[in-house]
Design brief:
- By secondary structure, this protein is mainly α.
- The protein is about 65% helix and about 0% strand.
- It has a domain at about 10-60.
- It is elongated.
- The protein starts with 10 loop residues before the first helix and ends in an 8-residue tail after the last helix.
C-alpha cells in the first residue's frame, strides 16, 4: 500500500531530481522511493560494519588464529 507524504525540499534539489527522473523516464515519486531505499540500505550496511569493527575491538584476532585457512585463500589479480 502506498501513502502520500508531504516533504519540504530545497528548490535546487527538486529541479535536479526532476531532470534526472525525466532523463531516466520515471517520475519524481518513483525516483525518490528508489533513492530512499538505497539510503536505507547504506545506513544498514554502515550499522553492520560498525558492529563488525566493535566486535573485533572487543575480541581482537589472535596471532596465528587464521593460519590454517591461509592456504585456502585464492587471490585473483584484477
Amino acid at each position: 500500500m502506498m501513502k502520500t507524504v508531504q516533504m519540504t525540499l530545497d528548490e535546487n534539489l527538486i529541479v535536479s531530481v526532476d531532470k534526472v527522473a525525466k532523463r531516466l523516464g520515471t517520475t519524481r515519486s518513483a525516483f525518490t522511493r528508489q533513492a530512499l531505499k538505497i539510503a536505507l540500505r547504506e545506513v544498514r550496511i554502515n550499522e553492520l560494519e560498525r558492529k563488525h569493527c566493535e566486535g573485533y575491538k572487543r575480541k581482537p584476532v589472535k596471532k596465528g588464529e587464521f593460519e590454517d585457512w591461509e592456504a585456502e585463500q585464492v587471490w585473483v589479480e584484477p
